[in-house]
């Protein structure tokens, strides 16, 4: 796990050094640079050493010194690829570096290289033979990749903050991206907070022709459900066997390392199944597992994690905290994250990563399980929502929603009034945008009021709407899985995991996102994932073979913190940096209503607060990006 930066065009070594220093937390073990004076190309790499400590230094080059790479991630099938490349005559200098496989793989397969990789990655290759930059991002976006392009300049980095250190990058805030941020709670790719910076979407590759300045971007892979109904004719035990095998295979692949590895353990189905898969061929006594808990029962899951750890006999590490101690970390975490994020579970995720990093350098996670096996609450709401649409006319819906809004707000974790109000909010919008509207910090009419301009709902949620339309003819369960996997997973869940772990210099590996496991899930009909109200049906059948029934069947709780309660009195003084193009009075009124217990604006206020830590006023009066990493 590492950090990468670089540019082609105007700039110098001092700018490169500043870009690297801003993301030094991503690679504390070593650093390396390369400058090509002929091409005006600059590459920088920060290394968190996981594989081949001696031979894995970057930038790394081929035998002639004409093809070099900076790479962030891990390639789990690098041994098989190395074998293929050696059979084709490639000579390797390193013992077992996955980075060198990418260098020779590009020489052999060119643009087809990313499609052959099973792993998480963002890399940039400088091809001095062709005066070309080639880059790619993994299938789901586990590893970040930001870039900026304009006449005579191309720049890239693992984090937005590094881009802010190059004078060619427009650091003013993108108002359209901000509207989408308040519509989703995150910045959907390719949007970013900065006007001059874009995200390379997951599953895409990029090439930049240095001589002409031409930039081209293309998808090499997209997640799509292609259900094979014939699978339902096979004995269920065969499908359970196959899924169990794929989970064990994915887990074993992610154990490659020259440093200590542990497992995140929440006591939920996904992380417990990861641990069970790892222990399938032996005991768990040499496996380190990690959990954090809270003294407040409604937010604590540590007892379930301890039960699972005891079941497998792991070396379990547990840290129990008071929620007020977690609250005190808000300024540190929000100032250090790279880009604003409306997901408050970033805070406990960071605390877990920081705790685990005291003992290990790599941790396995259960990220992706909810997306691939229909685990979220909205999956259960799809059927009732369709029925509601058929029997409740719009006028009556408005009355019902108006009555629900009178329910007194609660600060409890996923309280009943919160669920009712959220559900009725989503039902106010067409099916194509209902999923993000259910979870949005602000609904479209509120965003229009906040930014004081008319907004088209489909344009605001264009990413979700286009995906929904492309999936016409599929079941609503499958369409929802494509939304959660292609948009929410990439831009919320995996972004949160990357930033929280990298702030602690910890590598996190998502077992469920293995190529072979995902291919199997893509073929599974929806009734093998969601059956008669039972979410994650087939995954649960695998889990029943090795986990206590109380773990398999318990209700999903989520990794939450009491943001509604905290925001009643935190921060003491409401920050006043204006959001570009937005009505400051709107935000102030939301704060007053929330603190007066009149309304529950937790999602908007957390998103707004997160944004405040990343913007600063300028002498021109236009707000710009603020890199406050050094303020932590």
Can you offer a commentary on this structure?
With 632 residues, the chain is α+β, with helices and mostly antiparallel strands. 40% of the residues lie in helices and 17% in strands. Strands 2-3-1-9-8-10 form a 6-stranded antiparallel beta sheet. Strands 4-5-6-7-11-12 form a 6-stranded antiparallel beta sheet, with helices on one face. Strand 18 and strand 19 form a beta hairpin. Helix 6 packs across helix 22. The longest helix is centred in the last third of the chain and has 27 residues, at 476-502.
Descriptive labels:
alpha+beta; 632 residues; Rossmann fold; 6-stranded antiparallel β-sheet; Glutamine Phosphoribosylpyrophosphate, subunit 1, domain 1
